[in-house]
Amino acid sequence: xxxxxxxxxxxxxxxxxxxxxxxxxxxxxxxxxxxxxxxxxxxxxxxxxxxxxxxxxxxxxxxxxxxxxxxxxxxxxxxxxxxxxxxxxxxxxxxxxxxxxxxxxxxxxxxxxxxxxxxxxxxxxxxxxxxxxxxxxxxxxxxxxxxxxxxxxxxxxxxxxxxxxxxxxxxxxxxxxxxxxxxxxxxxxxxxxxxxxxxxxxxxxxxxxxxxxxxxxxxxxxxxxxx
Length: 227
What we know:
It contains eight helices and six strands, in the order βαββαβββαααααα.
């Protein structure tokens, strides 16, 4: 294929300088390559709800990019990375070619997961081994119950929506609810996530001057008695 206007790789002076989390649910994501790296990325995309299309070895076809959101090239077969990059750019498809930083729109950070809580570690592609080491350190220190606290937080948020206060007042109240994060973690670790949600609801509601149902107040009082 010839293309006199084929795109060139972007400059790498500030590579991957803007971290984001992508919503791929229901979106077509193409994984080109045949090997464990390609399988790993395809599985991660499926877990995120993506519509994943995997190509057999050496069978990449530009038609696979029709209506695609992103393309991952694992480099484990003979898929031409330059051609894949050019085709992706023509179609406005985000692309990542593993271990080829100049031809990537995004990088895969190392991830520590606790339920809905995801901590991403990136070195902008400069030191992947360092990202992995930091991830292992965080795995040892982040409490397992952190995800359950996030779920309890979400339950409290649902109970207190819609917001009627100015945003700065609203945000400050939610920060206050986390002043007792250690206590919330302990509650969730012991299986009392509903009690944790009630505590968060009451703390935020009080900070906002809301009139909460009596039952919520009673459950919050019992939070202090859980032992």
